[in-house]
Amino acid sequence: MTGRTLRRARGAVVAVVLAAAVCACGTVSERRDAVGDVTASFEKALDEGAYDRVCAALAPGTVEELAQSADGSCAKALSEEPPPPGGALRLADVYGNQARAVLAEDTLFLSRFDDGWKVVAAGCVQMRKQPYQCRIKGG
């Protein structure tokens, strides 16, 4: 391989790496926006007492955990002990397929599934020198 061919090959590799980096930033931004949308829908459903919609925004394991606690219905569990509204979104952190949405009065944890982002845990409070404690969470 000549020096000229080697420089071209290096240039092509650098261009591909830079393009991938730019695309990754867009992907993170898109994921953050999607997390914000799911969080807003979740909070709106909570505010309206539409617990069927709240349950639809939850991850399957979280729905199952709530349903077991109320003998069969996620919506029934939420209506018996409704979580307080979290308020406005302040920050959304996205790490691959996991995310944290920090609200004015709550913290949500989300995971990305085949059908989109779902809330895995809600009603979460950060404990000093310990992990978060969450009122609603999957098993």
CATH fold-level name: Nuclear Transport Factor 2, Chain: A
Round the mean pLDDT to the nearest integer and report it. 83
The portion of residues forming beta strands comes to 25-35%
Give the count of helical stretches: 4
pLDDT < 50 stretches: 3-26
Q: How many structural domains in the coordinates?
A: 1
**Strand line-up of the largest beta sheet:** 1-2-3-4-5
CATH class: Alpha Beta
Report the C-alpha radius of gyration, rounded.
20 Å
Helix content: 40-55%
The profile of the biggest β sheet is:
5 strands, antiparallel
Total beta strand runs: 5
H and E string: HHHHEEEEE
Shape: globular
Distance between the termini: 58 Å
Please provide a written account of the structure.
- There is one protein chain.
- It contains four helices and five strands; from the N terminus they run ααααβββββ.
- With 139 residues, it is an alpha+beta fold.
- The protein has one domain: Nuclear Transport Factor 2, Chain: A.
- A five-stranded antiparallel beta sheet has the order 1-2-3-4-5.
- The protein starts with a helix and ends with a strand.
- The model is unreliable at 3-26 (pLDDT under 50).
